[in-house]
Design a protein that fits this description.
The complex is a heterodimer.
Chain A lengths: L10 H10 L9 H9 L3 H13 L3 E8 L8 E7 L7 H9 L4 E6 L10 E7 L2 H15 L4 E12 L13
Antiparallel strand pairs in A: 2-4, 2-5, 3-4
Chain B lengths: L5 H10 L9 H9 L3 H13 L3 E8 L7 E8 L6 H9 L4 E7 L5 E7 L2 H12 L6 E4 L4 E5 L7 H5 L3
Antiparallel strand pairs in B: 2-4, 2-5, 3-4
Helix pairs in contact in B: 2-3
Classes of the chains: A alpha+beta, B alpha+beta.
Chain lengths: ~170, ~160
């Protein structure tokens, strides 16, 4: 991503983004409530949020559902060896269609580690994940992959952008 | 296990993305679902209360906000060192996820920071921690999918327990 894609955010916009990272008020006019807290007009909040949705600054807007309620959740990082750089996009697009895959990226290779396509695969058991991987492998023709099951979650938080302490960055 | 009735399921299906940006967003969704705005608001508040909804609002794209991010893999040959290394890493507010995994690369964490230089500062400090044999910086070069949750079909949510 080039520098020209980076947008500028005013102090006021940063304050709005900070507030939007808390939960949206669950009431008839949530944007009015946010506007009131910041001393803005509702139209200003609606215009800014609408613009950010349109240009992808907001990549998803809605409820995040807790999936541990599904029970014994297994999460596995699966890394794939893809021979040609040009083949990543096709395989990535294919893997993205699997609902069990939540994240899919291309990352650089290193030393004796040839795997460059990274997927996060979820399931209720290792067996279920193995089944998903067999389907992904058959569909993509990629045979060389490595499973890295999580054995312990040491940290999981969401990032707080434009926090007060770095406000003047 | 909390059970979700069919209306809860329909609501979860309707509010996970594309939340309306207008004066009465809940009214707009309620109309689509054929229920009243008050019912929808009451149900959403209850789903939050029951912690089935863990966050409600916009999810920002770190890159478009001008932030840099990466995934870092560590090789920690002595498993007894993992806990102390993990604790040091977690102390950085820029570290959002940190997982121990079954591999010779056994600790993997993600960093989101205001600049790439700050990320390198963090990885340098991590490299100097006792027990860390190797630090691999793996910034994403292309993104094909980011979606941090499942579709809210009733089977998936009720199928657990």
């Amino acid at each position: 991503m080039s520098v020209s894609d980076t947008l500028f955010f005013s102090r006021r916009e940063k304050a709005l983004i900070r507030l939007l990272q808390e939960d949206l008020p669950v009431c008839p006019e949530p944007y009015q409530e946010i506007a009131a807290r910041l001393g803005l007009k509702q139209e200003e909040v609606l215009a800014a949020v609408g613009r950010w949705v349109d240009c992808g600054v907001i990549r998803r807007f809605g409820a995040t559902v807790r999936h541990f309620r599904m029970g014994y959740e297994a999460n596995c990082m699966v890394v794939w060896k893809v021979d040609e750089l040009s083949d990543h996009r096709e395989a990535g697009a294919l893997f993205a269609t699997f609902p069990q895959v939540t994240h899919c990226y291309r990352r650089p290779p290193f030393r004796d580690w040839p795997y460059t396509l990274y997927t996060m695969v979820h399931g209720r058991s290792r067996e279920e994940i193995d089944n998903t991987l067999a389907k992904m492998s058959a569909a993509s023709g990629l045979k060389d992959y490595r499973l890295l099951f999580s054995v312990r979650e040491w940290k999981k938080t969401s990032m707080k952008y434009f926090s007060e302490k770095e406000q003047d960055r | 296990m909390t059970r979700l009735d069919s209306l809860d399921q329909r609501i979860l299906g309707a509010i996970q993305s594309d939340f309306p940006v207008c004066e009465r967003p809940f009214k707009k969704i309620a109309e689509k679902l054929g229920i009243s705005e008050e019912t929808l608001i009451r149900r959403v508040a209850a789903l939050k209360e029951r912690k089935i909804i863990r966050r409600f609002g916009p999810v920002f794209d770190s890159r478009k906000l001008g932030y840099a991010s990466t995934l870092v893999a560590l090789r920690i040959p002595d498993p007894d060192r993992i806990e102390s290394v993990a604790a040091e890493i977690n102390a950085f507010s820029e570290v959002t996820h940190n997982y121990e995994r079954e591999d010779c690369y056994n600790l993997w964490f993600t960093v989101i920071a205001s600049t790439r230089a700050r990320i390198l500062e963090i990885t340098d400090k991590v490299a100097s921690l006792e027990g860390v044999a190797e630090v691999i910086d793996l910034p994403a070069e292309e993104v094909y999918k980011i979606r941090a949750q499942f579709e809210p079909t009733g089977e998936e949510i009720e199928g657990g327990a």
